[in-house]
Automatic annotation (TrEMBL), chain B:
InterPro entries xrefs: Calcineurin-like_PHP (IPR004843), EF-hand-dom_pair (IPR011992), EF_Hand_1_Ca_BS (IPR018247), EF_hand_dom (IPR002048), Metallo-depent_PP-like (IPR029052), PPP_dom (IPR013235), PPP_phosphatase (IPR051134), Ser/Thr-Pase_EF-hand_contain (IPR012008)
Keyword Manganese: yes
Protein origin, superkingdom: Eukaryota
PROSITE patterns xrefs: EF_HAND_1, EF_HAND_2, SER_THR_PHOSPHATASE
Keywords in alphabetical order: Calcium, Hydrolase, Manganese, Metal-binding, Repeat
Gene Ontology MF: a single term: calcium ion binding
Key word Transmembrane helix present: no
Biological source species: Gallus gallus
Cofactors required: Mn(2+)
The protein's name: Serine/threonine-protein phosphatase
Length: 167, 632
């Protein structure tokens, strides 16, 4: 079927279909627009891990001149295609994530107290909202020690990904 | 920064390492935040597409249902005695023209040992409160009281016009609820948040009280009780599920027959009639139209108001039986035009596109566009349309420039944590206020990601069942794409085939890794999706098409079985089974050898006297995911 033609065309076409599909999951009205606040979820659902700052940059490229609160597929598609082709905003490998938690664990005790974590996450970097913090704690916090045992937490989150069929 | 201030005056190296730590800490923080936000978003997407899967399958199912009602009547005709047929399919116990419709409840004894709630008529609010508490405790109302309640309810409903007009004042706001679908906890939650119904706290319940959930009977009891106590301030609109044919398939009939072993059939029989007496619409302050489904470009409120609504026991097209033909001559049926008026009101969905087209997704009613809405609102000088009928993750939704509101009151509809429910409070401003809620009993202890996982697994299970049922066609279509017989096709082809064969608009590329294996070079091993599925009891040496067909029609066959199984024994004889099978397969045009059918029957555990537990037999055709079984 799609065997002829340059491989690159095939790759781009496939990427575009993938992006359109993800877009449509959020396109409630069926008119090829999504709420601007959903763009983050769409980008991330495509396997990208942008920071908030990077996301804002991307948004600036796809928003309308007059902020309508909506983003059109026709603007989003070329921008996102480039992102995927350039392999921007790569996922974070497990070991890098582990180092990050370890960096916050001053005493190298294997855990971070609730207070410490909350302080870092809500006051530094790209601060969490209250809702984001609460949600993270709900799965990360060990209620008995009131701390986050990050190795456990990471393996829990990673296991979650292997709902895929054994490849 | 905090650290540099506090280390002012410290020696340089300590200052430097603390500073370095901070830089590292901040980088680490940003990384974790970045990672977490992405995980969270991915979880949200999984939740969304799971809901999309549920919804698509539900609608596709409903579409098939409308086609299957013919089959159902066909089976009834051939498998059941004529007398039975006449009793179950015609409406009333009496010949048309007279109205001495009787519901005999007096002769039913309530034993002293009965500890459940008792009703005495006329009902008052204290009875209602006692009853609510009893039902909250999952007590069962005795069949005698149920039938007595139905008798009184019918009497009250008969007096109501097809379209009820209500007024709202500043001292008397009105509350509008949508689909409940047997979710008793939602109804109780609404009463808890919003207060019990009273003269100053009127309610409109906009249809679909029954089916799917486990407490449809209890919901009906409660709604009818309040209807009797406050007949002028408590309003019910008929929904598409207030229909005995749908009840057979979507769980209400099963619930009643299970809860009321002796009188279930009688209760269902009378409900057939009572549902047809439910009003069709409510209009608030002459400005807000409330109907269950929607409208069409031919909707005529005057005509709707005049037709004899009780003649429409079911909205499904049923084949004319010999007995019915006689009835029809005596004008006990509505005209096709009148039937369409009601069908449109109960089954239609709003759409972005202009115009009014047949509703393919459901197989009944229309898709109506913003222009259709404007046309109707203008014609009758109305301000807005409130309807239900469609699942909404937030419990409500606005469309057509805010002129059409959907209100859906069954929270956790597909699965624990799947969605919120909502209701509307309205005052004379006629500006709707939405109140959302979610019954949290089972989700309290669950974390967000666990909840999403449950929803996703449930959705995928449903989807896999559908895939299994279409196995033959899928394999044939895949083969056409794979001319060189490599067992591999492109992702693009795979997605296209899945969509066209299953007729479901889903994000196939997102679902791919959950459904099928892909090679490192990006080609899909299309046969791999069938490896992980099988029936609950593997039935070897049986024609594959037979197994697939049984899977597909499992629930419909269940319906037939319930009708056949007069003595509620749960058993049918091998002869009955063979006879039923022959008719079933001839209708569907599938060919099966007698030996195959017998082998099938034999593979089930027979009880001592050689009868087939048909329920058990059907259970065997429930599609399961093998990996789950291995884990269990």
């Amino acid at each position: 079927m799609a065997e002829e033609g340059s491989n690159e065309d095939g790759v781009v076409a496939e990427i575009e279909k993938k992006i359109t599909e993800a877009f449509k999951v959020f396109d409630h009205e069926g008119n090829e627009t999504v709420d601007v606040r959903e763009i983050g979820s769409i980008v991330r659902s495509l396997g990208c891990f942008p920071t908030e700052a990077e996301l804002h940059e991307l948004l600036a490229k796809v928003e309308e001149e007059e902020p309508t609160g909506y983003v059109h597929l026709e603007k989003f598609l070329p921008v996102m295609t480039k992102v995927l082709l350039d392999r921007s905003y790569r996922p974070i490998p497990e070991d890098v994530l582990l180092h990050a938690f370890e960096a916050l664990d001053e005493n190298k005790s294997g855990y971070i107290t609730k207070e410490e974590l909350v302080k870092h996450m809500t006051e530094e970097g790209e601060p969490f909202t209250e809702e984001e913090m609460e949600e993270m704690l709900s799965s990360a916090l060990d209620p008995e020690t009131n701390a986050v045992h990050y190795r456990n937490y990471i393996s829990l989150m990673v296991v979650d990904e292997t709902d895929d069929l054994p490849q | 920064m905090e650290c540099t201030i506090s280390t002012m005056g410290c020696n340089a190296s300590a200052h430097y390492s603390k500073h370095k730590y901070n830089e590292t800490a901040i980088k680490a923080t940003v990384l974790i935040q970045r990672w977490y936000r992405c995980k969270r978003a991915q979880l949200e997407v999984r939740r969304r597409y799971s809901l999309t899967i549920f919804q698509s399958i539900e609608y596709a199912d409903e579409q098939e249902q409308t086609q299957l009602s013919n089959f159902f009547t066909f089976m009834l005709e051939h498998c059941v005695h004529r007398g039975e047929v006449a009793r179950t399919s015609t409406g009333s116990d009496v010949s048309p023209g007279t109205d001495s419709y009787v519901i005999k409840y007096e002769k039913i004894d309530v034993p002293d040992s009965y500890r459940g709630p008792r009703l005495s008529f006329p009902l008052d609010i204290s009875h209602a409160k006692t009853l609510l508490n009893a039902l909250k405790d999952r007590q069962l109302l005795h069949a005698r009281y149920v039938l007595q309640l139905l008798c009184e309810t019918r009497r009250v409903l008969k007096e109501k016009p097809n379209i009820t007009h209500v007024s709202v004042s500043y001292f008397k706001e009105i509350t509008i609820c949508g689909d409940l679908h047997g979710n008793l906890d939602d109804l109780l939650l609404v009463f808890h948040k919003n207060g019990l119904p009273s003269e100053n706290n009127p309610y409109v319940f906009n249809g679909d009280f029954v089916d799917r959930g486990k407490n449809s009977m209890e919901i009906l009891i409660i709604l009818f009780v309040f209807l009797l106590i406050y007949p002028n301030d408590f309003h019910l609109n008929r929904g598409n599920h207030e229909d005995y044919i749908l009840n057979m398939k979507y769980g209400f009939a099963k619930e009643v027959l299970k809860k009321y072993k002796d009188h279930g059939k009688t209760i269902l029989h009378h409900l057939q009639d009572i549902f047809s007496w439910l009003p069709l619409a409510t209009i608030v302050n002459n400005k807000v139209l409330i109907v269950h489904g929607g409208i069409s470009d031919t909707t005529d409120l005057d005509s709707l108001n005049l037709l004899e609504r009780n003649k429409l026991k079911t909205l499904m097209k049923t084949r004319k039986l010999e007995t019915d033909k006689k009835n029809q001559e005596e004008h006990s049926e509505l005209t096709e035009k009148e039937r369409k008026q009601v069908l449109d009101i109960l089954w239609s969905d709003p759409n972005k596109q202009h115009g009014c087209t047949p509703n393919q997704r459901r197989g009944g009613g229309c898709y109506f566009g913003p222009d259709t809405t404007d046309q109707l609102l203008k014609r009758y000088n109305l301000k807005m349309l409130i309807r239900s009928h469609e699942f909404k993750p937030d419990g409500y939704d606005l469309t057509h420039n805010g002129k059409v509101i959907t209100i859906f009151s069954a929270s956790n509809y597909y699965e624990a944590g799947s969605n919120r429910g909502a209701y509307i409070r309205m005052n004379p401003d006629l500006v709707p206020h939405f109140i959302q809620y979610q019954v949290c009993a089972c989700t309290d202890k669950k974390k967000n990601w666990e909840r999403v996982k449950t929803i996703e697994q449930s959705a995928l299970q449903n989807l896999q069942e559908r895939i299994f049922v279409h196995k033959r066609k899928l394999m044939d279509t895949f083969a056409k794409c794979d001319c060189k017989n490599t067992g591999r096709i492109s992702i693009s082809d795979w997605a296209a085939v899945m969509e066209s064969v299953l007729q479901l608009k889903l994000p196939w590329r997102m679902l791919r890794s959950r459904l099928v294996k892909t090679d490192p070079d990006g080609k899909v091993d299309y046969m791999s999706c069938f490896c992980y599925m099988d029936t609950a009891r593997p039935m070897h040496q049986v024609q594959p098409t037979l197994v697939e067909t049984l899977c597909k029609y499992r629930r419909d066959l269940q319906m037939i079985f319930n009708v056949l199984d007069e003595d509620r024994s749960g058993l049918i004889s091998p002869n009955e089974f063979r006879k039923m099978w022959k008719i079933f397969s001839s209708y569907l045009g599938i060919h099966s050898h007698d030996e195959a059918v017998d082998k099938l029957a034999q593979s089930i555990d027979f009880n001592k006297d050689g009868n087939i537990d048909f329920s058990e037999f059907l259970e065997a055709f429930h599609v399961v995911h093998q990996l789950e079984n291995k884990a269990a």
